[in-house]
Automatic annotation (TrEMBL), chains A, B, C, D:
Biological processes per GO annotation: NAD+ metabolic process; NADP+ biosynthetic process
Entry similarity comment: Belongs to the NAD kinase family.
Tagged with keyword NADP: yes
Membrane spanning stretches: none
One of the record's GO molecular function terms: NAD+ kinase activity
Record flagged with keyword Transferase: yes
Protein name, per record: ATP-NAD kinase
Species of provenance: Tothia fuscella
Length: 436, 436, 436, 436
C-alpha cells in the first residue's frame, strides 16, 4: 500500500542467483532459513516512565537498515556488521534486499534477506527479526518502523545517527560498540554457566529451549547485570485504516488487504492533503463517531506524540512528550481563524472523511512521509485510533520499542534526551542576542 | 494565601448572633454541628473514559455556592435550596458565610455555615461536605474548587450555568430537578426496605452504620437503579508549592502553612506574570530538576488539561482533552520566535524560578485567577506537578469529581459535552461566510 | 502559462460558424470589430484613501464574466446583460468564448468574444475592454483579474457576489441596477447637450473624439453628478517572473513569452509548494538580491495585502489592509520554530530559489490559485516585486481598480466594507458564548 | 506624564550650586545658555528607501544619553565626550541632569543640562539639541526618543550598542570615531573657506548667519563630501492621546497638558493591559470612528513597524519592515480563537476604549515600556494614529531620524542591517540541527 515498502524489492526476480551461491563469503541467504524470533519483555522501571528491556534468551537475528545513496553510511554498516559478527557469534545479519546486493561482497559471512515479493516479505520479517538497528536519520527510523507497519510486535530498535541529525535517534555512531552491547545483553546474567534471567520469572514461551547458541556465556566481555538493563521508550503508534464511501476497507496497491486486519501502523502521523491540486480540501472530522468539525484546509494531520515534533510542529501543533498517551489533530493551513490543534486521548477514534463538497477532487494520503499510490475520492475516509500498548493483563505489548540513552538504574533523568533534542536540535526558545 | 478565600469571611466576629438564634426559620447554624461527610466511590464505566458515582449511603450535607452580586442567581439558589429541602429531607444545606447572611431569611429551614476564620474554615468544609452544587459560571466553579484547594478529597460537584455561560459547567439551571436527583441517588438501589449498594462490595468504612437518615427509602419517587449512575469526569489538578531562594516553603498570607503539606491544588492553572511592571520577566524553567529553558516573557502558565481552554488557550496553547493525563507549559508573550507550548506527562515536576537577572523586580503568582497577595522575589520559585488520581491500589482518589451529562449506560458518546463546548461556546473552527 | 487562461478556449477552431452567422439575435461576433477601449482616470478623494473613477467619455465595451457550472448564475448574467443593453444602448457586451456559446441564444442582441487562440486573446481583451463585471465569488474575480495578468492597465472591475460569498466582492446581485449605474456614469455631467467631464481638465488622449455613441445625454435617468463618483480601491498586484538556473526567463506553456516583458501580475499571491511530493522543500529567499533565509517547508507564499485574507491567512499571516503598500512573505508549514511572517515594502524585490539540496524534486508554482503546468527544478527561481500604482508624474496607473461601496462624497468611512468583511465573513474575533 | 521623564530630575532644587560654579573644569551649565538648535534636512536617496542627512551648518549642541547603573558605559560616555570635544571644538555637550552629576568631574570642559523641573525641561531640549547620541541598548534609544515625545522635530539620533545588544542600535561603540564623523559632517562641503551646502538650496531659515563656530573649515581631517552623506531611516511614530469618558483630554501626572496639543509620540507602541489584575480586560476597538471589535484579553498593543520586533512580536504579530507605512494592532492573550494581528494604514485613527463591562477595574497604559502613573477607568480611551512624516510640500518632517549604516551612495543594500538583525539577533528561521 505504501511506496516505501517497494524498497524491499523484487528479490524473487533478481535475487535467485545470489541466493544459490555456495560460498559463505559474500553469500546472500534466504531469511526463511533463520530460526523463529526471540521476543523480549518490557518491565516498568522504578520511576515508572521508561521500561527496561529483558531478553529471555540471546537474540540471534539482527536486522540492519540504513539510509540509501550515502556511501559513508554503507561503509559504516559494513564496519558495524563485522563488529557484531566477530563479537557476538553465532549471530545472523539480516538486511533489506537492495542492501544485500550492495554489501554482501564486502562481508566475510553470509547476510540474510527476503526472496519474496513485497507483500510476503513483511510477514517473514515480523517472524524472524529479534532486534533492529538503523544507521541514518529520522527517515531511516521511520522506514524501519514501516517494515513493521502491519504487526503489533515490533522488535526493539536501536538507532544510530549518521551525520544527518535526527530527533528520534539516540546514539551517535561512534558509540556503537557500547550501545549495541547494552541493547544486546540487556537483562542477561551469567550464573552456573547457564543463562540467568534476572528478575524475570520465566521466558515468554515455555517451548523456548535454551540451546547453546542462545547461551549468554559465549559472549566475550562482561555482561552488564540485571541492574543495567537497556532503557526503552515505547513509542505509541496510530492504527490507520482506509475505507470507501460504502464502508468497505480499501486494500493496498496490490489489491490484497495488507494484513489480517488490514490496518497499518504509523509512528509519526497520517495526513490527508490537497497534494498538487491548488484548491482547498474539505474534510469532515468525527471523534468517536460524532461530528467534530469540517476542515476547509490544505489538509489534516493526525499525529502521535512522537510525530508532534515533525509535520504537526510545522503546522503549529504543540510539542507533546512521547510519554503523554494521546493523539494530535492538527490542521494544515486551515481557512479559518479559529482552528486550533487538539490533543485527544489515545483511545479516541478519529475519522477524516472527504466531504461530498470536494466535487471530483482527490486528496493524497501519506503515512510517515510515504504517499499512498492512489488518492482518496469523495466519501472515502481514513479511520485512526491510538495503539494501546498494554494488554488487559498489564503486559507491555505494541508500540515501537526504542532503546534510549541512560541505564535504567541511573539517576539521570528520563527526559534528558528529549529535552536535549528540543534545545540542541529544534532550537527551542533559542535566546535572542548575538551569541550563536 | 489566596484572596478569594477571604470570601469565607470573618464569621467569628459577626456571626455569633445569628448562630445563637433559636428559631428554625431563618436560622444560621454552625457547620460543626453536622455529621461527618460521606465519601462516594468512583468506578470505571464500560468504555473506560468516564467514572460512575456510587454513594455508600445517602449524602446529607450539601454545599451550595453561587456567583456574587447577581440577584437573579440568589433567587435561583433559594428556589433550589427549597426544592432540595422538600424532596430530600432529612438534608443539611451549607452555604458560605456571606451567602448565609444574604439568604437565611428567605429559607424556612436553617442553613449551616462556618464560624471560624478563613484558615480554619477550609478544613471543616473538607470534613463535612458530601456534595457541592454551584450556580454561576466558570468562575463560580473555580471558586468552589478553591474551597477544597488544600485537600485531596474534593466532594463531587454538580454545576449549573446561570446566564453567564461557561465551559466547565454542564447543566442548565432549568434542568436542576432531574440533574440533582441523578447526582443524589447515583448508585442507590432500594431492596427489602434497606439501601442496596449496587455492585459495590461494601461501604468505604466498616464503621458506617446505616441510620434512618441515611436510608434511600425515604426519598420520594423512583430511584434510578445501578445502571443509571451519574457520570463523573475526574478533572486532574495541579499541586503547587512556593519556595524561597533557600528552598524554604513560603506560607500563606496569615503566616502559617496553609495545610499539612503546604501545597495548594489548582484546577485551571498557576501563572507567574510581570503584573503591573511594564518590563519583561526572566523565568528559569526546570523539568524533573533539569534545566529546560529560560523564559524571557510576560510570564509562564502551567495548566491542567481543564485549564487548556482558559488562559493557556489565549496564550496560544493547544486544546487538550481533560482525559489526557498531562500538564501544559505555555509561555505568555515570550520574547522569542521559537518558544512553543509543551504538553508534558502529568507526573513531571516543573519548577519556575525567578532568575537572578530580574534585578529587584517582583512577579505576581496567580492560581485559578486569584492572585497571591505577595509577589515573588529573586530566586523564589513555584514547584508544580500533576495530582495523581489513582492510588496504588487502583482506587480513584483526588481530582475534582465533576458530574457530567449522559448516563453511564447510555451509548451517547462521552465527548459530547466537550465537543459541544468547543463548537457552541468557543466557536471552534467557526465557518467563514455570512451565516451566523 | 497558466491553466486558467485555457478557458479562453480555442475559438479559432470551433467558433467560426457562429461568428459568421448573420442574425443579430443570438449572434456571436468577433471582439476585433469593437472600437478601442476608453480608459478612465483615477483621482484622489478628499480623505485620500480611496480614488474616484472618472470616465473621459462613455464606456462602451463591457466584459461580463461569471462562475462556471452554476445555472443560476448563468441566468443572472442573462438578466444583467439584457438590463444593460436596454438601459445603456449603444453598448457592446463581451463574454468569454465558452460563455458566448452558453448564452448567445438567450440574448436578443449580439455578444462579442475572442476568435484567437489563448496567447492572442489576452492582448485583444486588453485593447477592447472598458469595464469588467463579475458574477460569482472571489474565484471569479481572480479569474477576471487573470485575464489581465499581462497588462498594467486593468479596466475597472465591478463584482457581484452570487450565493458563494466572497471577501473581495462588494455588491450583492440584487443591487445590480444601482451599482452598475454608479460605475457607468461615474464622473459624467450633462451640460449643454454635450458631455461634461466634471473637474477633469481633458480626456486622456487628444485624439478622443466624442461621437454620438459616447455622449452621456442618451442615457435614461439622472446622471449622478461629479460629487457622486464611484469609489475605487486600487488593489496592488505582484509582478512575477520565472527564471531558470542560468537566469533565463522561462516562457509559458506555449513556449513563447507570455507578454512583452514576460512578467505576469498576481492579485492574491504566488506560491511555491511541494505539491504531491510528501517531503519538505528547501527554498532560498533573497531580498533585494541579499540572502534572507532558507526555508525548509511545504512552501512559501508571497502575497499582496489583498491576498492577506486568502492563503497567507491560512498559513498564519497577519491581515493587512489593502491600502498598506506592502508585500507579505509567509511560509507554509515551515520546519522551524522561529519562522514568522514578514511584511515588506511593496518595492522590495524578492527571489524564491529552489535550493540545490532538493535533489531532483520539483516544486509547484501557483499564481492566484492556478498552477503552472510545469513545476520548477533545481536552481530555478521566482522573482517577485510589488507593482507600483503611481507613475512618476503622480498619475494612478496599474493595480486592479475595484469599484467599492460608498460614494466618495459621503462620510461613510472608507474601511466599512473591509471591516464588515472581517467581522461578517471571516468571523474576526468572534465572541465566545452561546449566541450564534 | 511618564515616569521615565522624571529622570530629568529636579535640578532646580539641587543644581544651583554647580551651575554657579565658575571653573570651566567639571562645570555644569544651564542648557538655556546654548544657542538655538540647527535642524538638518532629509533628502530622498537614489533608491528611494532611505534618506540622506544634510546639515545647513555645523551642529553644535550634542545630547549624550546612556544606560543607567552601568559603570562601563559611563566610562565610555566620558571617553566619547572627550573625543568629540577635542575633535570638533567649538561644540557643546548636553547630558541629562543625573548624568551631569555623575560625569562632570571627569570632564575637562563644562557640560550643559536642564535646571528646570520635568515639564519645562522637555521643551528646552527640543529647542537646543542638534544631534543625539545614545550609549546602551534599545531601552536607551527608547528613552532618548521619549525625551522628544512631545515634539514633531526629533533631532537625528546616532546609537551605539554597548554590550547589551539591541535591535534598534546600528553601531558598535568601537567604531564611534568614524560613525560620529559621518553623522556630524554629513552633507558638508568646504569651498572658498565658507560652508557649502551641497545640493541643498538654502539653510532652513534665512536668519541663520554662518558665524565662525558654524564653519566646517575648522574641523580637522577630511570632510566626506556630498556623496557620502549619512543615511537616515525615518522611523514613524504613533501619536497618542488619552481621554476621559466625556472626551476630555487627560493631562499628565503634573496636571498640566504635556504639550500644546497634548499628544505624546511613541516609537515602539502604546499598550493597554490588565496589569496586576488577574482578570480579563474588555476593550472596544474603533477604526476611524467605526466599531471594529471588542477585545476580551490581557490587553491590546498598537505598534509602529519599529515596534513590530518588540512586544507585538512576543504577542504573535508579524514582523513589519520599518519602511512600510503602517500601524499594527496586536492583541495580548485574547480570549478568542479568531483574533489575528492586523496591519493598518499609518493614517488610520484607532481608539481603544475601556468597555463599561469592566466594572471598576482599571487598566494600565504604557508607552514604549513606561507605564502611565494612573491607570484608566471605565469609558476612558486611548486615541492613536500614525505620525505623518512628510508635509504637504513633500518635505520630510517628523519621525525619529535614525542614522543607519551604509553610506547613501554605496550599493550596499538598504535592508542589510534590518535583515542582519533578524538573522543575527532575533534568530529568525534559525535552522534545526546540531550546529549552533
Ligand atoms: N489552504 C488555503 O487556505 C488555500 C488557499 N488557496 C487560495 O485560494 C485562492 C484561489 O481561490 P479559488 O480559485 O476560489 O480557490 P478555492 O476553491 O480553493 O477557494 C479559495 C477560498 O478563498 C477565498 N478567497 C480567495 N481570495 C481571497 C481573498 N483575497 N480574501 C479572502 N478570501 C479569498 C475564496 O472565497 C474561497 O473561499 C488562491 O489565490 C489562494 O489564496 C488556495 C489553496 C489552499
Ligand atoms: N512580553 C514582552 O515582549 C514585553 C515587551 N516589552 C517591550 O519592551 C519595550 C521597552 O524596552 P525596555 O525598557 O528595554 O524593556 P525591557 O527591559 O522589558 O526589554 C525589552 C526588550 O525588548 C528589546 N526591544 C525594545 N524595543 C525593540 C524593538 N523595537 N525591536 C526589537 N527589540 C526591541 C530590548 O532590546 C529588550 O531586549 C517596550 O516598548 C515593549 O515593546 C515590554 C513588556 C513585555
Ligand atoms: N512541512 C513539513 O514539516 C513536512 C514534514 N514532513 C515530515 O517528514 C516525515 C518523513 O520524514 P522523511 O522521510 O525524512 O522526510 P523529509 O526528507 O521531508 O524530512 C523530514 C524532516 O523531519 C524530521 N523528522 C521526521 N520525523 C521526526 C520526528 N518525529 N520528530 C522530529 N523530527 C522528525 C527529519 O529528521 C527530517 O529533517 C513525515 O512523517 C512528516 O512528519 C513531511 C512533509 C512536510
Ligand atoms: N488573557 C486571558 O485569557 C486570561 C484568562 N484568565 C483565566 O481566568 C480564569 C479565572 O476565571 P474568572 O475568575 O472567571 O476570571 P475572568 O473574569 O477573567 O474570566 C475568565 C473567563 O475564562 C472562562 N474560563 C475559566 N476557566 C475556564 C476553562 N477551564 N475553560 C474554558 N473557559 C474558562 C470563564 O468562563 C471566563 O469567561 C483563570 O483561571 C484564567 O484561566 C485570567 C486572566 C487573563
Amino acid at each position: 500500500m505504501i511506496q516505501r515498502t517497494k524498497l524491499l524489492g523484487s528479490i524473487a526476480a533478481t535475487g535467485k542467483r545470489s541466493l544459490s551461491a555456495s560460498s559463505r563469503w559474500a553469500e546472500i541467504r534466504d531469511i526463511a532459513e533463520l530460526p523463529h524470533r526471540t521476543s523480549p519483555r518490557y518491565q516498568d522501571s522504578k520511576n515508572g516512565d521508561f521500561l527496561t528491556l529483558q531478553w529471555p534468551s540471546r537474540p540471534q537475528n539482527i536486522l540492519l537498515t540504513k539510509k540509501n545513496k550515502t556511501p559513508a553510511i554503507t561503509e559504516s554498516l559494513i564496519e558495524f556488521a563485522k563488529h557484531i559478527h566477530s563479537e557476538y557469534e553465532p549471530i545472523n545479519m539480516i538486511v533489506e534486499h537492495h542492501v544485500a546486493k550492495e554489501v554482501h561482497e564486502s562481508l566475510p559471512f553470509p547476510v540474510y534477506t527476503t526472496a519474496a515479493p513485497k507483500d510476503k516479505s513483511m510477514p517473514i520479517l515480523h517472524d524472524k527479526v529479534d532486534l533492529v538497528s538503523t544507521l541514518g536519520g529520522d527517515g531511516t527510523i521511520l522506514h524501519a518502523s514501516a517494515l513493521f507497519a502491519t504487526t503489533k510486535h515490533v522488535p526493539p530498535i536501536i538507532s544510530f545517527s549518521m551525520g544527518t541529525l535526527g530527533f528520534l535517534g539516540q546514539w551517535k555512531f561512534e558509540e556503537y560498540k557500547r550501545a549495541f552491547r547494552e541493547a544486546y545483553v540487556s537483562g542477561a546474567e551469567v550464573s552456573h554457566g547457564r543463562p540467568a534471567l534476572g528478575d524475570v520469572a520465566a521466558p515468554e514461551s515455555a517451548e523456548t529451549e535454551t540451546s547453546d547458541s542462545q547461551s549468554w556465556s559465549s559472549i566475550r566481555g562482561k555482561l552488564m547485570g540485571s541492574n543495567h538493563r537497556a532503557r526503552v521508550l515505547l513509542r505509541n503508534r496510530l492504527k490507520v485504516g482506509i475505507f470507501d464511501a460504502n464502508g468497505q476497507r480499501l486494500t493496498d496497491d496490490a489489491g490484497t488487504p495488507s494484513q489480517e486486519h488490514g490496518d497499518v501502523y504509523a509512528m509519526n502521523e497520517v495526513i490527508m492533503h490537497r497534494g498538487a491540486n491548488p484548491h482547498l480540501t474539505i474534510i469532515k472530522v468525527l471523534i468517536n463517531g460524532h461530528f467534530l468539525t469540517e476542515a476547509v484546509a490544505d489538509g489534516m494531520i493526525i499525529s502521535t506524540p512522537t510525530g508532534s515534533t515533525a509535520y504537526s510542529l510545522s503546522s503549529g501543533g504543540s510539542i507533546v512528550h512521547p510519554l503523554v498517551s494521546s493523539l494530535l489533530l492538527t490542521p494544515i493551513c486551515p481557512r479559518s481563524l479559529s482552528f486550533r490543534p487538539l490533543v485527544l486521548p489515545a483511545n479516541a477514534q478519529i475519522t477524516l472523511r472527504l466531504s461530498e463538497m470536494n466535487r471530483g477532487k482527490e486528496v493524497e494520503v501519506s503515512v510517515d512521509g510515504v504517499r499512498r499510490n492512489k488518492g482518496l475520492g469523495l466519501g472515502m475516509e481514513v479511520r485512526v485510533s491510538g495503539e494501546s500498548v498494554r494488554d488487559r493483563g498489564g503486559v507491555w505489548n505494541g508500540g515501537v520499542p526504542s532503546i534510549v540513552r541512560g541505564a535504567a538504574g541511573s539517576d539521570v533523568g528520563g527526559d534528558d534526551h528529549w529535552v536535549g533534542g528540543l534545545n540542541g536540535l529544534l532550537k527551542y526558545n533559542y535566546p535572542f542576542g548575538e551569541g550563536a
